[in-house]
Amino acid sequence: MNRSIISGEDGARLLDQAQMDDPLFVQSIARALHVLSVFHKAEQPLSLNEIAEASGTGRSAAQRVIHTLRALGYIERDETGRGYLPGIRVLDHTVDYLRLNKLIERATPVLLDLRKNARERVDLSLFDDLRVVYAARLQSKRETFFATLVGHSVPTFCTSGGRAIMAHLTDAQVDDIIARSDRRPFTDKTITTPDEVREMVREARQTGYALTVEEVLVGEVALGVAVLGPGGRPLGAIHVAGSLSEWTPEAFCNRFAPLAVEAANAINRLR
Q1: By the 8 A CB rule, do 21 and 50 touch?
Q2: What is the pLDDT of residues 229-247, one digit of tens each?
Q3: 124 forms bridges with which residues in the sheet?
């Protein structure tokens, strides 16, 4: 199959030949959005050449797209005038998504109660195939900058929320996610082998929650419980995260698993 946009766990979508041949599919819009998507993993402003290369768009086409997006406020120059960054108009769409998403609306008061009782970091993530995307983040007393950002995403296969979600999928769906995931480890504790990931998913099916220990962040223990939609389809997960300097994994489970399961059940009942 011919592919013109590279997909990955950063959320970029795959444009296949069927979409390219679809008479209703507007490729110029797809190209513009793909140019915006090159910032997903950027750590600094990007030059025109860097955007063109990362997006697979010719320099001339990338220049036209950037000019248009800049005129509309979706891309802007950085302070030095040497590179480009996402523009403030992008935030308008973020707030639209958050305020109109019914799951986030009904989950928010439950999450606030959970944060009050847990006094540790509480997150709500949304399931997006190979990744889970944080849609709500209620912080504890110790957080790094990226851990405070709504919209940050992590792989499904190696996170507590992701495995809790996978526990509500079929074995075939679980195998598909594992096979398509980039299973490079975040730490030396990240579980990456397919059989071990499957075993963690089976354990989550039995307990009703998933636990990870230092698989994404060194020193962090995290517990996830799936949030379900109609027919038991997993929509996302609640996460509770703490520090191994204060909790053993067993004590963390004993303290927070009942709270997280109760909170997820409360959200499920509200749909």
Answers
A1: no
A2: 999 999 999 999 999 999 9
A3: 136, 238
